[in-house]
Amino acid sequence: MSTTSSAGSAGASGTSSGAPLAHRVPDLGALELLLAVARLGSLGRAAKELGITQPAASSRVRSMERQLGVALVDRSPRGSRLTDAGALVTDWARRIVEAAEAFDAGAQALRDRRDSRLRVAASMTIAEYLLPGWLIALRSQRPDTAVSLTAGNSTAVAERLLAGDADLGFVEGLTVPTGLDSAVIAHDSLIVVTAPGHAWARRGKPLGAGELAATPLILREEGSGTRQVLDTALGGLARPLIELSSTTAVKASAVSGAGPAVLSELAVGEELSARRLVGIPLEGVELRRALRAVWPTGHRPTGPARDLLSLTRAGVE
Questions:
Q1: What pLDDT does residue 75 have?
Q2: CA-wise closest residue to 61 among 92, 77, 83, 78
Q3: CA distance 103 to 176
Q4: SS3 letters for the chain?
């Protein structure tokens, strides 16, 4: 009865003693050396094949013998011969090494599948004005990775990440959405712009924060990082003149003369240079924000997502 109980206990723990398995089983490198000795009949040739010195190979064999408590190799001027125990251990070692090779091949297949695609979700300004350059740089590093990009506001980016529909995200808001970790990858300023014919383009003094807050503006939709920054900085906004779902649409409306807008400086450089838009000086408030890469909490980016994150952080101001 006691024998049965003992065997059941050993089966439950997976070993016949309380010692951790790793302390009683030689590592893969040592087992590969033993297999090479068996195949080549020489410790020196086995060491050469594995790229180690003969003294290092001898030390590794002695360490295995001490660990297992049996002699494995007989050494003589004519070469190295496995003992009877060594031949038996070699058979076991071959199965362990083959299993490890199968494990490694399976893990590599998982990495290849992960590395074959990258799903990115980004808020509009980053998607339109920063990501194209980063993705071109990533393409040179990982030409076989297929990249898909979904653009939306910061709230939508967070939702895609938390649903498992994106591997890496980029947002522009003041705060990091719940459930996500982040890293600052750039900084950006918002500026007030109007068409050249607007009255603000001819004013002789800076625009006050209170006047801006009280003026109906062409705005992004609620949930966008740009609107969140502006609303927080001004302590509230007037009812929108027009509400649009993309930076490009807001900019086109401002250029048409529909009204003033507040946009990222990244988005309006060309229009300001060509005088299709005019920047309006603002006093009493600073509209500066951090641009962030985001990912689900506790799941640091790996593979192509990690490489893209490295490319973006190289340009942190």
A1: 79
A2: 83
A3: 38
A4: CHHHHHHHHHHHHCCCCCCCHHHHCCCHHHHHHHHHHHHHCCHHHHHHHHCCCHHHHHHHHHHHHHHHCCCCEEEECCEEEECHHHHHHHHHHHHHHHHHHHHHHHHHHHHHHHHCEEEEEEEHHHHHHCHHHHHHHHHHHCCCCEEEEEEECHHHHHHHHHCCCCCEEEECCCCCCCCEEEEEEEEEEEEEEECCCCHHHHCCCCEEHHHHHHCCCEEECCCCHHHHHHHHHHCCCCCCCEEECCHHHHHHHHHCCCCCEEEEHHHHHHHHHCCCCEEECEECCCCEEEEEEEEECCCCCCHHHHHHHHHHHCCCC
Percent of the chain with pLDDT over 70: 88
* 0.85 exceeded by pTM: no
Residue 135, burial from CB neighbour count under 10 angstroms (0-12, 13-18, 19+): middle
In CATH terms, are 2-113 and 118-313 the same topology? no
Handedness of CA 131, 133, 134, 138 (dihedral sign): positive
pLDDT at 314: 61
Mean pLDDT, range 247-256, rounded to an integer: 94
CATH class of segment(s) 118-313: alpha beta
Domain ranges for the chain, please list them: 2-113, 118-313
Q: What is the tens place of the pLDDT at every residue in 159-190?
A: 999 999 999 999 987 888 899 999 999 899 99
Phi, psi of 166 (to 5 degrees): -145, 150
| Structure confidence at residue 205 as a pLDDT band (50, 70, 90) | very high
Q: What count of other Cβ atoms lies within 10 Å of the Cβ of residue 127?
A: 20
Residues 6+ apart with CB under 8 A from 273: none
CATH top-level class of 2-113: mainly alpha
Confidence of residue 110 (pLDDT cuts 50, 70, 90): low
